[in-house]
Amino acid sequence: FGGNPAAVCLVPSEMELSDEVQQKIAAEMNISETCYIKLTPLNSKGEPPRYNLRWFTPTCEVPLCGHATFAAAHVAFEQGVVKGNLIQFMTLSGVLEIMKRDDGQMRMDLPQGNPVPVELGPIESLLYEKMNLPKETTIKEVQFCAKTRKLLVEIDCPNSPQGNGGVLTNLEVNASVLHTLKIEDLDIRGVIVTTAPTENDKQYFGKYDFVSRYFAPWNGIQEDPVTGSAHTVLFVHWGKKIKREEGLRARQASKRGGDLLLLPGGEGR
Predict the structure, then answer these.
(1) Alpha-carbon distance 213 to 251, whole Å?
(2) Which of 30, 46, 113, 149 could form a disulfide with 145 if both were Cys (CB 3.0 to 4.6 A apart)?
(3) pLDDT per 10-residue tile (average), the chain, 269 residues
(4) Could you tell me which residues come within 8 angstroms of residue 53 by beta carbon, excluding any fewer than 6 positions away?
(5) CATH architecture designation of domain 6-109
(6) According to CATH, what is the number of the domain 115-262?
(7) Considering 33, 97, 154, 223, which one is annotated as catalytic?
(8) pLDDT value at residue 45
(9) Which residues form the active site (predicted)?
(10) Residue 195: what pLDDT?
């Protein structure tokens, strides 16, 4: 009862589903993402199998979704859509490749986000208000990723007995209020709140390099359980602060929650 559920629709080559129908199905599923694999091979024989893949929330199509891509690959492997241990998807974010390992686990190649610093001064009080941050919380850094349209807010709670992770886990964000957050020149479609565990974080310290939560009421998602696209931004942010050859260990601290291992790929991946 953890992780992030996704609906996967296998669309036969001869069937055409309009955008309207795909959106209505996603609204009927009413989970963070419903994805559609068009079962028309895009590659020639002898090349890695490649298919079109699209993702819809209950209210809109999105350009990138990690967990639903894992779900799509799992279904493709299990249903015999592809033979072997490799599949590629053509998406709005380019080609994504998923490899199935011998132990059954999968590894996905995602494009890195491009977060840049946002001046905190003019928006600090606004963030405290819209995100319902406790007074003892310090906002350490704010970044915005134009590629994914996600705002990243790093917090620190040095004097809290709960520890950083505890404060983040217990943070009560009203998605309706957050939805009214507007920052000049930023087209925000999601907010990432993140922190590094402290020694009094019994649940997280020593197990994870950073913890996060993700809210996207702009896309019809109050809080996403585990978000691959958010971690394309988090990996860049934390990768500049934490150097680990074996990858960064991440925990998304939603009610369902999920663990991620983030490794560098090729250039920009």
Answers:
(1) 9
(2) 113
(3) 91 95 97 95 84 96 93 94 93 93 88 94 96 94 96 94 93 96 95 95 91 96 94 95 89 94 82
(4) 35, 36, 37, 38, 69, 72, 89, 90, 91, 96
(5) Roll (3.10)
(6) 3.10.310.10
(7) 33
(8) 76
(9) 33
(10) 97
CA–CA distance, 19 with 165 (Å, rounded to integer): 40
- Contact partners, residue 257, CB within 8 Å, separation at least 6: 2, 3, 225, 226, 251
For residues 44 and 143, what is the distance between their CA atoms, to the nearest angstrom?
A: 41
DSSP labels, 91-118: ETTEEEEEEE-TTS-EEEE-----EEE-
**CA–CA distance, 158 with 152 (Å, rounded to integer):** 19
Look up residue 183 and give its two tokens.
Answer: 């920052």
**pTM higher than the cut 0.85:** yes
As beta bridge partners, residue 221 has: 216
Residue 199 is a catalytic residue: no
